[in-house]
């Protein structure tokens, strides 16, 4: 079914659908509402016309995803990009879903505060997209996931109903945590319109140290035993083909290690000295804003081209990569060891084999892109599947959101 160009909105809200292609396939129409009321009207029109809708933020990840079967309308949310309320004394911020992480970071940096969210390509990644993906980078253990930071949200259901969950400050959060349920729903349950978040004071000191590592050093489990006790903000191992994409990370070794600390200057310096005792002098050491840029570079590596498997493990040292031996797939691996999050970029035909092999070594698959359907090592329980269907039936009874599948 063809979609009307403006979907019930002012014709100026219609935008070129060619800019919203998913894996090369564009929708029939795309619209960019500029208020929550316009967003609701667009969803009501989509429900009336039986159209499948994909909420669209910066398109950082979506453009690489396979298009859903019903890709009728891209709902571009970047027109909703205001900072609604910023209470620096309370360390809280409320913003609309279309504002970028880069914009929010600049706003907070002026007050010495930090938004504890990370995602690839922060210049384009939107708040709604980061929450919808529950995205995080190398500092996930230190900062928590987005669902740990969100206090409340306004959202639109598939039929255009506007609703709210949670509050703007910690003491006002009550009732069902729908706002947390939407984190990680990937645009399949509702559209996040605006969100309220807990902030952090910016740390007084940041240091990142870069090392080149040989495979035997990566696999040395006993040698890494001391590192988690140091509580690094980041501990990431990168295969050489991925590391070579960034001149700071390129080491001419099979693997690059980034270890970083944040906090009070004496504590950070003490931890850096302990790492020096363990690994020797770093090839590169950066501080302050340069360390922030390096954290962003690590997040950017999570969005390399091609098929991607994202897995998690309770093993939180580089030695966990020994599960893959000398497999060539490690050349493009990005392993945030501190939080046990592994990103692999294998040939699509190897995805199932690798997922099964790593499952036997304690890795759980949490996302697969461009690799077809991956059969989980442990099928979801029937009760869990039934609960998912009930949640979707409650939030999107007309099945407007195409990314949820059928």
Can you tell me about this structure?
The protein has 406 residues and is of the alpha+beta class. The longest helix has 15 residues, at 265-279. It folds into three domains: 11-78, Uridine Diphospho-n-acetylenolpyruvylglucosamine Reductase, domain 2, CATH 3.30.43.10; 83-201, Uridine Diphospho-n-acetylenolpyruvylglucosamine Reductase, domain 3 (2-Layer Sandwich), CATH 3.30.465.10; 205-369, FAD-linked oxidases, C-terminal domain (Vanillyl-alcohol Oxidase, Chain A, domain 3, 3-Layer(aba) Sandwich). It has helices spanning 36-49, 101-109, 127-133, 140-143, 146-149, 178-182, 215-218, 221-224, 240-243, 265-279, 288-300, 351-359, 382-395; strands at 14-15, 29-31, 53-56, 73-76, 83-87, 92-96, 113-114, 150-156, 162-166, 191-198, 200-201, 205-213, 234-239, 255-263, 284-287, 308-312, 334-336, 341-344, 364-369.
CATH domain class of the largest domain: Alpha Beta
For the secondary structure, the number of strands is 19
Remind me, CATH topology of the largest domain?
Vanillyl-alcohol Oxidase, Chain A, domain 3
Sequence of strands across the biggest β-sheet: 15-12-14-13-17-18-16-19
Q: Using the CA coordinates, give the radius of gyration.
A: 22 Å
């Amino acid at each position: 079914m063809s979609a009307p160009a403006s979907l019930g909105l002012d014709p100026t809200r219609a935008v070129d659908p060619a800019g919203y292609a998913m894996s090369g396939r564009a929708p029939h129409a795309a619209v960019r509402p500029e208020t929550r009321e316009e967003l609701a009207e667009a969803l009501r029109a989509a429900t009336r016309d039986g159209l499948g809708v994909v909420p669209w933020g910066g398109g950082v990840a979506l453009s690489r995803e396979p298009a859903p079967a019903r890709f009728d309308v891209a709902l571009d949310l970047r027109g909703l990009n205001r900072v609604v309320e910023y209470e620096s004394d309370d360390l809280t911020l409320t913003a609309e879903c279309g504002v970028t992480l880069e914009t929010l970071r600049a706003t907070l940096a002026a007050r010495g505060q930090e938004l504890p969210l990370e995602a690839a390509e922060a210049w384009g990644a939107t708040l709604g997209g980061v929450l919808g993906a529950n995205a995080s980078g190398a500092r996930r253990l230190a900062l928590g996931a987005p669902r740990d930071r969100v206090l409340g949200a306004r959202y639109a259901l598939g039929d255009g109903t506007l609703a709210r969950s949670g509050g703007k400050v910690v003491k006002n959060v009550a009732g069902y945590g729908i706002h947390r349920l939407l984190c990680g729903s990937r645009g399949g349950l509702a559209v996040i319109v605006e969100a309220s978040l807990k902030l952090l004071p910016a740390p007084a000191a940041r240091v990142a140290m870069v090392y080149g590592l040989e495979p035997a050093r990566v696999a040395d489990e006993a040698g890494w035993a001391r590192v988690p006790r140091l509580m690094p903000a980041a501990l990431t191992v990168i295969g050489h083909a991925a590391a070579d994409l960034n001149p700071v990370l390129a080491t001419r070794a099979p693997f690059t290690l980034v270890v970083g600390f944040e906090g009070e200057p004496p504590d950070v310096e003490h931890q850096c000295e302990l790492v020096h005792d363990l690994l020797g002098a770093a090839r590169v050491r950066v501080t302050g804003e340069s360390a922030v840029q390096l954290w962003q570079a690590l997040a950017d590596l999570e969005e390399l081209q091609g098929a991607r498997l994202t897995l998690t493990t309770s093993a939180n040292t580089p030695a966990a990569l020994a599960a893959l031996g000398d497999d060539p797939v490690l050349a493009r691996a990005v392993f945030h060891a501190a939080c046990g999050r592994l990103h692999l970029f294998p040939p699509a035909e190897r995805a199932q084999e690798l997922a099964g092999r790593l499952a036997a070594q304690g890795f759980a698959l949490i996302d697969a892109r461009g690799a077809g359907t991956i059969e989980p090592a442990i099928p979801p329980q029937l009760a869990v599947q039934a609960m998912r269907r009930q949640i979707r039936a409650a939030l999107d009874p007309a099945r407007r959101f195409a990314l949820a599948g059928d």
